[in-house]
């Protein structure tokens, strides 16, 4: 057909199309982002074996995603049937029906397969609960293998890493130091790649290390009860310590992510200097090439003086409207859901677990339902919103009697950021209008995605 293979390679091996994870993370997600931002070569073509390689979600999600990609100028070629769909296909009734039928078939197949797998797993769990033996390899930890001859689980070489983790942690080593040591030695994680703190913390709290499976003693025990209990006490102490307050409130806590690796960017206090900065958590663990840092005041001033000036409609708020209160509640639910999904993704990237994958699928469905409700509620109240009311909501946080001048108002917001009480009140306001901020710490490129779907992308100038 005259197409030339791109030198860029996009692979998503084993990433679920049923939950939509392949479009949220990984290579396909990156391809879609490049397409929407116009950064692909002219006349790009996405070649798929079949439609189910793109999505196995239900029609409301899958059709929307396909149409968005086609409208962005990307052609989609389906190997099964040798069919090519282009921007013109979005207005072709026959092509739309063909896509819908294929997508519906992919979803139904995955849904039925998922039910059969769950039923099979339930039967295996029941056998174990009754004192029998069953191969539950898909639910077993990575340090165990099933012996088909002896009909039992046995430990493999990864069990030694688990023992090392417990030994070091109980001897006083931190989780971060354990992760750094593993990565420095080039020791691969259980599913390959780098180690992360979430993976080590999960292992330390996993009862499978002491042989537990669904409340039954079934797996081989590789850690003594005493070692396990000691680790739980230390984990609880450290968990409480992590919750202590800081003098400087992070206005973008849980919202900033590394442009390169996609993991969280956290605020760190500079030792011996009177400022704080943002760094990628993977850089701290030695697992990301983004070695530079960003002063927090640069990002905060850029957000208030540039981003909000360019998108004043983002801060539109509701006053004395039940719908506005409902929208705030929905956005908070969305934020909490997204945080839980990010945590599960971090775990799933290194430690495959059926329960975690099922939980992630449930959270995804909840997020989709919340998104639909947010759109409905936003549409209902948009006409009654205006900028003065929007700024009035933030105006209460600072000593400024006039918010009619946007530049003056945003300048006052920056000046008020030095007050801790103001920052405490401002943080949830930002969380209600911002979905996420992706930052490239090398080029200072910033991509801000707002809750209402708007996206701002630019470079910080300093």
Outline the structure in words.
With 462 residues, the chain is an alpha+beta fold. It has three domains: 1-133, Rossmann fold (3-Layer(aba) Sandwich); 135-242, Putative Large Serine Recombinase, Chain B, Domain 2 (Hect, E3 ligase catalytic domain fold); 256-459, no CATH class. It contains 15 helices and 14 strands. It has a four-stranded mixed β-sheet with strand order 8-12-13-14. Strand 9 (265-269) and strand 10 form a beta hairpin. The longest helix has 37 residues, at 93-129. The chain is globular.
Short description:
The chain has 462 residues and is an alpha+beta fold.
Total of domains:
3
Number of helices: 15
Strand arrangement in the largest pleated sheet: 8-12-13-14
Largest sheet: 4 strands, mixed
Give the SSE map.
Layout: H1 21-24, H2 26-36, E1 45-48, H3 59-71, E2 75-78, E3 83-85, H4 93-129, E4 144-147, E5 152-155, H5 158-170, H6 175-185, H7 197-205, E6 212-213, E7 216-217, H8 225-242, E8 256-258, E9 265-269, E10 276-280, H9 281-284, E11 294-295, H10 296-310, H11 322-348, H12 354-381, H13 387-395, H14 406-415, H15 420-433, E12 434-440, E13 445-450, E14 455-459
Parallel strand pairs: 1-2, 8-12
Antiparallel strand pairs: 2-3, 4-5, 6-7, 9-10, 10-11, 12-13, 13-14
Helix pairs in contact: 5-8, 10-14, 11-12
Based on the model shown, name its key terms.
15 helices; 3 domains; alpha+beta; 12% strand; three-stranded mixed β-sheet; Rossmann fold; Hect, E3 ligase catalytic domain fold; four-stranded mixed β-sheet; globular; 462 residues
